[in-house]
């Protein structure tokens, strides 16, 4: 086929196709951006709600005396028990301290005093600023393996969280 003998494409037709393509593409992009904006605003609202809830929880926890020395015990079998671990441990300590048997109370009080003396001398992971970020992740509910991988990637010892 000799291209000089082929008739040219009509300019009106080419312009019509190009206009149709531009109109459809702009409509698609407008819908896409609207959906993305709605989803981002919903996500932003949800994040704000979570931050508010965390601030309330933090305020409630900071109002409880004696939680500064609580150590976190992470079990690899159940991550959900990590978030409830210190609270459950404190509740257990309060229940045992409030038991009516005075002989056991004295023994338990002496044991608690010895444990407090030991914990005062030892720097816990909870007080280490390098691990504070990871303990916050545990409290929020980030999977343990993700936290462990992040700790390893930063060159820290992941076994200390357990």
UniProtKB/TrEMBL annotation:
Biased composition (Polar residues): 91-110
Record's keyword annotation contains Transit peptide: no
Any one Gene Ontology cellular component term annotated for this protein: WASH complex
Listed InterPro entries: WASHC3
Spans traversing the lipid bilayer: none
Pfam families: CCDC53 (PF10152)
Keywords: Coiled coil
Coiled-coil portions: none
Keyword Coiled coil on entry: yes
An annotated GO BP: actin filament polymerization
Family: Belongs to the CCDC53 family.
Protein name stated in the entry: WASH complex subunit 3
Gene name linked to the record: Washc3
């Amino acid at each position: 086929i000799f291209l000089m003998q082929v008739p040219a494409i009509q300019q009106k037709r080419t312009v019509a196709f190009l206009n149709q393509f531009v109109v459809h593409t702009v409509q698609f992009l407008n819908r896409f951006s609207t959906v993305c904006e709605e989803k981002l605003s919903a996500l932003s609202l949800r994040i704000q709600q979570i931050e508010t809830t965390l601030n309330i929880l933090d305020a409630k926890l900071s109002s409880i005396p004696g939680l500064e020395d609580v150590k976190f015990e992470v079990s690899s079998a159940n991550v959900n028990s990590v978030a409830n671990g210190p609270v459950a441990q404190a509740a257990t300590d309060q229940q045992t301290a409030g038991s009516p048997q005075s002989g056991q109370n004295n023994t338990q009080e002496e044991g608690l005093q010895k444990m407090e003396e030991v914990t005062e001398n030892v720097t816990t992971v909870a007080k280490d600023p390098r691990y504070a970020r990871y303990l916050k992740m545990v409290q929020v509910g980030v999977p343990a393996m993700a936290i462990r991988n992040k700790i390893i990637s930063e060159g820290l010892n992941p076994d200390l969280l357990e």
